[in-house]
């Protein structure tokens, strides 16, 4: 076991106010129960809203209506966003139908498939929250820890190509998600009417009895785990606080390489914040995965920054303490050492579309869902189509990390039936859209996200219509170039891992980034600041035309812009800004 070279310490400083809220919340209860019953406002207090996140939800307002409501002297159009915890993104057809029904009854009539493989609903009014939560619970799902300073929904490669390994890896991902949940009964009391046990402990921050792993203050910040099965890096393993990379030898899962310290959020103009990629520190056996996760989480609990939230993610803890020191501390806490890293290779971080045949004669269909939004429009009845498919489907749905959905485990007999529905509703044939669009991703942004500085999900499709003209003019229609857009630098659509990316700065203005690796192993670099559509198209016109003419055989766009000196390679998050 390596020795820790320095004494590990958490940064000193006055704790952020969120620490007070957690401390005073009595294990995430706060006054949420009362707030949700109060009928004078459709909103809740800021303190309760902070706690709501731990329950998978938070209060938003419809930003499209903000000005108008202000003029009319009305309170903002308050509504809640709700995120489901769906380990590995697997939903049964019955669960799909429940989500569809709840979104129609209580939400805004759409579902959002998120970049972390789960469902979000928007537009739920306060008075409908409890019914919605109970509906989700009755369908054997929950929203516990879907947001908040805890471990979030655990991602897992939904790989239909290696179905036999997928099943096993998925079970580990699910176990992590379940076993790392907070132990407080707050969620059950507030939303499911469970009686509060008499004498529920009031908070003593030094006492970890009610929350053995998290403690009463939970983590300094959100924490994310992903599990990848090479060669697919669709879960963007290097963006995770903690990543497990499955190692398969002779068709058997022998264990996982362990990667720590990734995360993508940052703030414009603040170089103390930066995206960072996780680094691989060794290998563990499958049955050791939980202990590794548990101890890594306790290291972040003990040494993460509780004073400055924007520097509180585990990536900053690792960079501050040093990778080797964190590894040594982990091994110390485990009482054993990680083995040498095993070899692995990734080849892309996107999805593969259409029908593929997996094991046991089962078929899987990956459907491109633009911006992850399941909605019926006049010309494209996606929500209805998937509802009908769920009505006859006997396999499962797998939500992907690229905001798409796989209609998975379809028997040969059922395949024709499902394919008839795919054709009846004219669901997007991935062959007929450009490789660029197939590889696109956009975060929610406006109108629901309170942090958005610019549009993303509502704008990227029309921007791609225009980029497609450049793509076609240069014979690049089938080139799978990853393109990602977010409304702000929090980076929910993982933009710093896009070969082309746009991060919102102001309405209609974006910073443009280039040069991430196609397999998700290198961050991109800022190329232009604060530009609008005309300039974006002008820049891409030149770049894509040179790429078409000058690229080397098999060279990806992200590599091309680096080789030809358009941008410098970002070799580590710490040089992202230079
Ligand atoms: Fe995110 C906050 C949406 C994936 C980094 N994210 C938010 C909030 C809750 C806004 C807020 O706090 O006020 C957004 C809700 C908008 C809305 O109206 O729904 C939001 N994040 C999303 C989703 C829905 C984007 C999507 O279009 O799919 C994704 C939900 C994932 C899930 O199912 O759990 C989503 N968020 C991500 C990712 C990507 C990932 O995890 O793979 C990131 C970057 C990776 C990372 O965490 O480093 C991400 N979200 C953030 C951050 C910045 C965190 C940081 O380290 O600085 C925030 C802001 C914050 O935490 O203060 C944020
Ligand atoms: Fe909102 Fe910013 Fe996340 Fe987009 S990246 S969903 S705008 S917080």
Helix content: 25-40%
Unreliable runs, pLDDT <50, ≥5 residues? none
Side by side, the strands of the main sheet go 1-2-5-4-13
Overall geometric form: globular
The averaged pLDDT comes out at 95
Question: Could you give the topology of this structure?
Answer:
Blueprint lengths: L16 H8 L7 H6 L8 H9 L2 E5 L4 H6 L6 E6 L6 E2 L1 H13 L5 E3 L5 E6 L4 H10 L16 E2 L6 H17 L6 H7 L32 E4 L13 E8 L2 E9 L18 E6 L4 H15 L10 H8 L1 H12 L19 E4 L5 E5 L5 E2 L7 H11 L3 E4 L5 E6 L1 H13 L10 H4 L1 E3 L17 H14 L9 E4 L13 E7 L2 E6 L10 E7 L1 H18 L6 H7 L15
Bound molecules: siroheme (SRM) and iron/sulfur cluster (SF4).
Describe this structure in words.
The chain is an alpha+beta fold. Helix content is about 30%, strand content about 15%. The strands form four sheets. A five-stranded antiparallel β-sheet has the order 1-2-5-4-13. Strands 3-14-15-12-11 form a five-stranded antiparallel β-sheet. A five-stranded mixed β-sheet has the order 6-7-8-9-10. Helix 5 packs antiparallel against helix 12, helix 12 packs antiparallel against helix 13 and helix 15 runs parallel beside helix 16. The mean pLDDT is about 95. The chain binds siroheme and iron/sulfur cluster. The site of iron/sulfur cluster (SF4) has 13 residues, from loops.
Short description:
The protein has 578 residues and is an alpha+beta fold. The chain has helices spanning 17-24, 32-37, 46-54, 66-71, 93-105, 129-138, 163-179, 186-192, 289-303, 314-321, 323-334, 382-392, 412-424, 435-438, 460-473, 533-550, 557-563; strands spanning 57-61, 78-83, 90-91, 111-113, 119-124, 155-156, 225-228, 242-249, 252-260, 279-284, 354-357, 363-367, 373-374, 396-399, 405-410, 440-442, 483-486, 500-506, 509-514, 525-531.
């Amino acid at each position: 076991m390596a020795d820790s070279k320095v004494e590990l310490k958490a940064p000193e400083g006055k704790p952020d106010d969120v620490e007070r809220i957690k401390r005073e919340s009595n294990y995430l209860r706060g006054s949420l129960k009362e707030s949700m019953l109060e009928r004078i406002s459709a909103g809740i207090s800021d303190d309760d809203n902070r706690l709501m996140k731990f329950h998978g939800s938070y209060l938003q307002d419809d930003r499209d209506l903000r000005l108008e409501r202000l003029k009319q002297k009305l309170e903002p159009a308050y509504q809640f966003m709700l995120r489901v915890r769906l380990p590995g993104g697997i939903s049964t057809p019955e669960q799909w139908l429940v989500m569809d029904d709840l979104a129609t009854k209580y939400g805004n009539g759409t579902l959002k498939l998120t970049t972390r493989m789960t469902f979000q609903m928007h537009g739920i009014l306060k008075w409908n929250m409890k019914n919605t939560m109970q509906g989700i619970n009755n369908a054997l799902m929950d929203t516990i820890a879907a947001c908040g300073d805890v471990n979030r929904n655990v991602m897992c490669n939904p790989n239909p190509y290696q179905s036999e390994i997928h099943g096993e890896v998925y079970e580990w991902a699910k176990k992590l998600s379940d076993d790392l949940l907070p132990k407080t009964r707050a969620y059950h009391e507030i939303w499911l009417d469970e009686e509060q046990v008499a004498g529920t402990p009031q908070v003593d921050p030094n006492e970890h009895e009610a929350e053995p792993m998290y403690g009463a203050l939970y983590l300094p910040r959100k924490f994310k785990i992903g599990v990848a099965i090479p060669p697919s890096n669709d879960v963007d393993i290097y963006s995770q606080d903690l990543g497990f990379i499955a190692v398969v030898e002779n068709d058997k899962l022998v264990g996982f390489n362990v990667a720590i310290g990734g995360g993508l959020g940052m703030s414009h103009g603040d170089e103390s914040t930066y995206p960072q990629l996780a680094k691989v520190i060794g290998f563990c056996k499958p049955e050791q995965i939980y202990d590794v996760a548990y101890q890594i989480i306790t290291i972040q609990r003990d040494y993460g920054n509780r004073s400055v939230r924007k520097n509180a993610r585990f990536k900053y803890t690792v960079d501050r303490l040093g990778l080797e020191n964190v590894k040594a501390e982990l091994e110390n806490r485990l009482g054993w050492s990680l083995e040498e890293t095993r070899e692995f290779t990734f080849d892309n971080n996107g999805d593969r579309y259409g029908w593929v045949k997996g094991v046991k004669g089962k078929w899987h269909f990956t459907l491109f869902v633009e911006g992850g939004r399941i909605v019926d429009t006049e010309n494209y009845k996606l929500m209805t189509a998937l509802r009908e498919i769920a009505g006859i489907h006997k396999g499962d749905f797998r939500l992907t990390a690229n905001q798409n959905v796989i209609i998975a485990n379809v028997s040969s007999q059922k395949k024709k039936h499902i394919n008839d529905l795919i054709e009846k509703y004219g669901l997007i044939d991935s062959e007929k859209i450009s490789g660029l669009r197939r590889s696109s991703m956009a975060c929610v942004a406006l109108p629901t996200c309170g942090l958005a500085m610019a549009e993303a999900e509502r704008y990227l499709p029309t921007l791609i219509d225009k980029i497609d003209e450049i793509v076609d003019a240069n014979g690049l229609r089938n080139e799978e170039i990853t393109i990602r857009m977010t409304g702000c630098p929090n980076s929910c659509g993982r933009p710093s891992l896009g070969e082309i990316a746009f991060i919102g700065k102001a309405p209609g203005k974006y910073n443009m980034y280039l040069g991430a690796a196609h397999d998700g192993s290198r961050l991109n670099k800022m190329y232009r600041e604060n530009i609008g559509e005309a300039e974006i198209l002008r820049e891409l016109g030149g770049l894509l035309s040179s790429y078409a003419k000058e690229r080397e055989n098999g060279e990806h766009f992200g590599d091309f812009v680096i080789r030809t000196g358009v941008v410098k390679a970002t070799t580590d998050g710490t040089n992202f800004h230079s």
